Amino acid sequence: MQLDVGLLALPGVKLIRTGRISDARGYFAETYVRRDFNAAGITEEFDQDNQSMSVAAGTIRGPHFQIHPFAQAKLIRVARGKILDVVVDLRRASATFGKHLAIEMSEQGLPIEWGSSPRTSSSNFPPVSARAVTATICCAWPRPSPCERRSSRLCPKLSFE
Fold it and tell me: The domain that contains 123 carries what CATH number?
């Protein structure tokens, strides 16, 4: 599996492109091969695979995250439609604490695009299109309170609008 890994403005956040093999019948793509991701420096061990579907553009879920010792890194992929993946850096010791970036991701782009968010960051992906399906692979099992947190998208301490 060939990976093209691009670094983004927040440390640890990456845009990962994988290849597709296409013909008249459609396409085939390997979306995750641990050996190849590890070789590209993405060494998290992923424990859970989630899928969500939003029927309306602009739907907001979360944003939520988990704190140490159960902080989750995530790989986010669009299976259908288009999303705006918004990642907020919640690492207090980080020079970019409270900053965010937004990555528009879709099923249309060749190759497949993954967004990778580091542990202790909040990721939210409102759909830009109707009927967006997003697949998220997480490391660490989700834990209920007191480890799960929500960050308000209107919180003045975060530069999130």
Answer: 2.60.120.10
